[in-house]
Amino acid sequence: MLLYTENPLKFAFSREISELSLPDASHGILGVPFDSTTTYIPGARFGPNAIREASYNLERFNVDLDKELNINLLDLGNLQVVHGNFQETSKHLESTIREFVDLKIIPLILGGEHSISYSVLKALNVEELTVLHFDAHMDFRDTYQGEKFSHATVMRRIYDLNPHEIIQIGIRSGSRKEVEFTRNVGIESYSSNWIKNNLFKMVQIISKLKGPVYVTLDIDVLDPAYAPSVGTPCPGGLNPLELQKLIYSLDHENLVGFDLVEVSSRCFGEVTSLNGAQIIYDFLSVI
Ligand SMILES: [Mn+2]
Question: How many C-beta neighbours within 10 Å does residue 200 have?
């Protein structure tokens, strides 16, 4: 790249393949612009590029942590999705993530709707993983509108993959069946309301996690005041500083992958994409 040029089609501070050979990259960004099972507000297909564009508003120097962002990060562009076809899109995504694993590149996924997280986890060694799930919704239905694979069933499908543990953070919406099922199988679920009153306890729970961790973060875990452009907004959520504290409390040595889903901003400077870019930046800052 020439001096004084930038490419808003990739995440700020990332490099392109021509600049950084694949074996040197430690982390790779992949956009998955898929939104075919969205039921309320569509547009998550615009998420990856909206987050990238918003990332150019950020400084390389992190004032909070008093350090420069210094990471071998590659932006590999967007997955070729097949709109309207979850199965084909899932096959493409699973194969691509297997390539990440072979190259020892930790995947950072920009959604897209939440159903895509299943395909990412399918390609990882899921039985050893703690899946940390930030979301307003439980997403534990067995089927939704007759579909097995949907944004509303994604955590149930991930549960079916038999991960070591699932921990839900920020929950404030679920059916009676979902609540009973998660209780019966021993899934820890922390409500948004509880976290508001017990932020330090939540920080301690996250910081004490042992073993490999995968994070799936639906941006609707934030209150709609900070993230209105999402598939299913739900009032009563976390604020950006509360979420940042939880992200900073992760032991990043153990992080094997991360996805940020459900951003559906449609114009420059929209607050959901700004917070989306900040969340990715916060993760990158403490890796
Ligand atoms: Mn959600």
Answer: 9
Q: How far is the CA of 137 from the centre of ligand 1 (A)?
A: 4
Tens-place pLDDT, residues 178-208: 999 999 999 999 999 999 999 999 999 999 9
CATH code assigned at 45: 3.40.800.10
Number of domains the chain contains: 1
> Is 113 part of any domain?
yes
* pTM greater than the 0.70 cutoff: yes
- In this structure, is residue 13 part of a structural domain? no
Helix (H, G, I), strand (E, B) or coil at 206: helix
Of 123, 29, 9, nearest to 72 (Cα)? 29
Token pair in block for residue 145: 């509108």
CA distance 187 to 184: 8
For the stretch 222-260, pLDDT in tens is: 999 999 999 999 999 999 999 999 999 997 788 999 999
Instruction: Name the residue among 244, 276, 283, 286 with its Cα closest to residue 52.
Output: 276
38 near 44, Cβ under 8 Å?
yes
From ligand 1's centre to the CA of 113, what distance in Å? Answer: 9
Residue 6 lies in a domain: no
State which residues have CB under 5 angstroms from ligand 1, the bound ion: 135-137, 218, 220
Half-sphere exposure of 229 (CA within 13 A, CB side): 22
Cβ-contact 235, 152 below 8 angstroms: no
Domain span holding position 53? 22-286
Cα(25) to centroid(ligand 1), Å = 31
CA 153 to ligand 1 center in whole angstroms: 11
